[in-house]
Design brief:
The protein has eleven helices and nine strands. By secondary structure, it is an alpha+beta fold. Helix 5 (73-92) packs antiparallel against helix 6 (95-105), helix 5 runs antiparallel to helix 7 and helix 7 packs parallel to helix 9 (299-325). Helix content is 53%, strand content 15%.
């Protein structure tokens, strides 16, 4: 971890303190915290310096994401959302759009990316939200579901169908026809501002279409998902690190049958498995981030592999930590209780375990058969 990343991580630790449990129970992050991080570029650290961002590479951004995830999974989710939005603008927007939007995203404006719909989850080709041109305006109609950070975001990047192609439309939250409804009592990442979005004849200037629209729908989805999957994977590393720390402290201090828990062989095995999972997930994320920074030809596969490994080990590791701590972690808001709920959702968001397995199997068939 470089000096800049270490300094930012230390500052974030001070900002979060021991408040993550309260945020989880309340179901909301403090707006002043989110605004401060957004204003200083720490919600999307990979925005290029030429656009006013910190300009970090993927490796440094990943370590910062993991640290955030070890402190508060909901805050990491909001960070992932902001990074996805910025990356989508950078990749799909024209130069004028990038010059107008990226400095805003690096200096205080918050954003959410809206993919999923009631009938379009893993199968995003089933997106039914439509974007249609009407002269010099674009009209949006549809519904999005479970959009992370949408409850508080200033801008919504809505993925829609546009004729036989697709489009990403930048929608200010106060636009007439936009209704945002918070998801009640989410199982995990409870404070991340998950919301459903209703779009009823929303009219915006045609310049709100990133890159003019009419892009292949799979391109739009994979562009944003590439960043999101790698960010979630690093977040899983953070979950695992939090679980390792909590489990080690408990097992090293609690005594049963005349010795510490960690001295009992079966508990020691749990600790070894938990730490091994964290190491495996870290190495997979480091490999994917190197590929991102070097624009490696196998980057897509490396990202899916990191996300798949990270999510599975996070879910398994959180369950192991809960077993080690037992009743000590059984209260709502405890770091391991949060990790247990949050980790399960990482096996669903940004591509389910099953979707990841299909992608990886296809890679095997294309390269080894």
């Amino acid at each position: 971890m470089g000096d800049a990343v270490a300094a930012a991580a230390g500052e974030l630790t001070e900002l979060v303190g021991d408040r993550a449990a309260d945020w989880d129970r309340a179901g909301r992050l403090p707006e002043d915290l989110v605004r401060e991080l957004a204003a200083t570029g720490r919600l999307a650290v990979q925005i290029p310096a030429r656009h006013g961002g910190l300009g970090w590479n993927s490796a440094d951004g990943g370590e910062f994401t993991a640290h955030t995830g070890s402190l508060c999974g909901s805050l990491r989710s909001v960070m992932t959302s902001q990074g996805m939005a910025a990356w989508t603008v950078e990749r799909l927007g024209d130069p004028a759009q990038a010059a107008q939007l990226l400095p805003r995203l690096a200096s205080g404006t918050t954003a959410a990316v809206a993919f999923s719909e009631p009938q379009a989850g893993s199968d995003l080709s089933a997106i039914a939200t439509t974007a249609a041109l009407d002269g010099d305006t674009v009209v949006l109609d549809g519904r999005k579901s479970w959009v992370t950070a949408a409850e508080q975001a200033d801008l919504l990047l809505v993925v829609a169908r546009m004729g036989d192609a697709g489009a990403v439309v930048v929608v200010p939250r106060e636009t007439p026809g936009v209704r945002i409804r918070a998801v009640p009592d989410p199982m995990g990442f409870r404070a991340a501002g998950h919301a459903d979005i209703l779009l009823d004849a929303v009219r915006l200037p045609a310049t709100s279409l990133l890159g003019g629209g009419h892009q292949p729908l799979p391109l739009l989805v994979t562009t944003a998902l590439a960043f999101g999957r790698l960010s979630v994977a690093w977040g899983c590393v953070g979950i695992l690190r939090a679980c390792v720390t909590a489990a080690a402290r408990h097992a090293g201090s609690r005594r049963q049958f005349g010795k510490t828990l960690g001295e009992h062989q079966l508990v020691a095995r749990h600790l070894a498995d938990l730490w091994t999972g964290e190491q495996i997930a870290t190495r997979a994320c480091e490999h994917a981030s190197r590929g991102w920074d070097e624009n490696a030809p196998d980057l897509g596969t490396a990202i899916v592999l990191a996300k798949h490994i990270g999510a599975r080990h996070a879910a398994r590791g959180a369950a192991t930590a809960a077993q080690i701590l037992a009743s000590a972690a059984a209260s709502d808001g405890h770091v391991v209780a949060r990790a247990y709920r949050d980790a399960k959702l990482t096996q669903i968001i940004e591509g389910t375990d099953e979707v990841c397995q299909l992608v990886l199997a296809d890679h095997v068939l294309r390269t080894r058969a």
